[in-house]
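Annotators were shown the component list below and the corresponding predicted structure, then asked to write short factual statements about the assembly.
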Amino acid sequence: MLVVNQGEKVKIKVKVNGVLYERYVSPRMLLVDFLREELGLTGTKVGCDTTTCGACTILLNGKSVKSCTIFAVQADGAEITTIEGLSVDSKLHPIQEAFKDNFALQCGFCTSGMIMQTYFLLKENPNPTEEEVRDGLHGNICRCTGYQNIVKAVLDASKRLRT
Ligand code: FES
Ligand code: FES
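Structure shown to annotators:
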């Protein structure tokens, strides 16, 4: 078990979107705050801060996680992908295109978490049914859209990624 004196910071190394970072962090710092405040990756949002809404979803070593649920120190040595890591050469990722084309967002606050969860869902299951999409996104809350267009966007993205 890691023992740290009060006020002491801990060195961590993480690879985020392909870039290696070394930083000293408070042991109590949440991963989402590390990404936003230390690395300036503010595409990852904080909605509830209590593992409920999914706005903070990222990929940690290839698995989708709610980054408000873990401490930055627990990510030491990990590979992380955030929403900023999906587009290549300023070109939107096909999932981002599908969300845009299907009007799957209104305020956009949930969108980066939805897209990261979709990325994971489609990696695990490239051709999901509507029911599987709804099930795969059940940990991500949207207060605006009613979900219909989000589900349409995910099904559309699955087609785009398979052709
Ligand atoms: S901010 Fe992490 S689940 Fe809501
Ligand atoms: S688009 Fe506003 S919360 Fe989902």
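Statements collected:
1. Strands lie at 10-16, 19-25, 57-60, 63-66, 79-81.
2. The CA atoms of residues 127 and 152 lie 13 Å apart.
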